[in-house]
Amino acid sequence: MYGKRIEHAWLVFDHWRDNKFDATLISTIVVMNTVALTLISLASCFAYLAYYHINIMTKISPKAVYLQNKLLLALCVQAAVPSVLVYIPYLLSMNIPLFCVPMTFIHNISAPVTAFFPTWDAVVMILLIPDYRRGLAG
Q: Where is the signal peptide (predicted)?
């Protein structure tokens, strides 16, 4: 588009177009970073609150507490999969070009890692929940 050929990486945002800072792109990145980090923070906060309230319950049996904690662990791991495979590559891919750091490795693995996240999500659940493992084996 600008008469320049980029051979070693794909360019997500051209932050420094003609060596000038593009405020529109930066505001977009700030909004998207805020959304991503807010979602990760809220999920972490809710997981902690669920764990806390499960363990202070006095009207349920220890076995029910164990099962609830096991399900909460599975839910947390299932929530961590998109965080690790989608949000973190997204944050790196969007923010690294801002600092003019050549990180072609991050850009090259972002798309495949994001594409494989549904598969890893299913694998994690099969590994964590014995009923799913038995169903797969049967």
A: none
Q: Which residue type, as a one-letter code, is found at position 137?
A: A
Measured CA to CA in angstroms, residue 17 lies from 42, 45, 59, 91 at distances of 35, 39, 62, 21
Residue 15's closest CA among 24, 7, 2, 5? 24
What average pLDDT does this structure show over 55-79? 88
Which single residue is written with the structure tokens 């070693």? 8
Measured CA to CA, the distance from residue 104 to residue 118 in angstroms comes to 24
Nearest to 106 by CA among 26, 1, 41, 10: 10
How much is the pTM?
0.66
Q: Do 76 and 47 touch, CB atoms closer than 8 A?
A: yes
The whole-angstrom separation of Cα 119 and Cα 71 is: 20
Q: Crossing angle for the helix pair 104-115 and 88-95, nearest 10 degrees? A: 150
Nearest CA-CA partner of 110 in 125, 126, 127, 96: 96
Tell me the C-alpha distance between 85 and 92, whole Å.
11
